[in-house]
Amino acid sequence: MMWLISTWIAGTAAILGSLMVLGSLILLVAPTQPRLRTPQQAANSDTPWSQRLKLLGVSLVMALAGLGILLAVPFPTAQ
C-alpha cells in the first residue's frame, strides 16, 4: 500500500513537473510587451525573465524529484 501511495505521488510530480517545464520553455520564447508601471512598482518587482527562470527551476526540480522517487522505490515482489 505504501508503494502505491509513494509512486502515485511521484508519478504525479513527474508528469506535472515535465508539463510545467514545457510551459516554462514556451514562456521563455514568447515575446512580451512591457506593462506601464509606476516607478515604485518597477523597483519592487522582479524582471519577467527572472520570474520565468524561477518557474523553470521549480518545474525542473519537481520533475526530477518525481522521477528520482520513482527510480528509488522498488517494485514490491511477492515472497
Detail the topology: elements first, then pairings:
Elements: H1 2-29, H2 39-44, H3 48-72
Helix pairs in contact: 1-3
Folded structure, characterized:
The protein is mostly helical and 79 residues long. It has helices spanning 2-29, 39-44, 48-72. Helix 1 packs antiparallel against helix 3. The protein starts with a helix and ends in a 7-residue tail after the last helix. The mean pLDDT is 85.
Q: Descriptors for this entry?
A:
single chain; 79 residues; mainly alpha; 3 helices; elongated
Name the helix and strand elements from N-terminus to C-terminus, one letter apiece.
HHH
Main beta sheet: strand number and arrangement? none
DSSP strand (E) fraction? Answer: under 5%
- Unreliable residue runs: none
| Mean pLDDT across every amino acid position | 85
SS-derived structural category: mainly alpha
Question: Brief overview, please?
Answer:
The chain is built from 3 helices and no strands. With 79 residues, the chain is mainly α. The protein is elongated and about 65 Å long.
